[in-house]
Fold this sequence. Notes:
Blueprint: H1 3-12, H2 15-26, H3 40-60, H4 64-79
Amino acid sequence: MKIPAIKKLVENYNLHELMAAEEAIVDEQQPAIEVEGEDEGEQLTHVLAAVWILNDMEDNGNDFKTSLREYTKKVRVSIS
């Protein structure tokens, strides 16, 4: 997971575009948007993170950094 790649997605694409990219990656197709990542797994991780962050920003009125911090907390808890 690379924070700059997630930030780029959040800043450049809307929720609809990101969800379409998620679907394309899951279906082993090339997404219509540029998604950085070494492989499909990393690309999917970046897209899923961007979707979560955009939803959190909208739902809670948070800025990017706050939503990113909340997302990384969730990731740490899930892997510990």
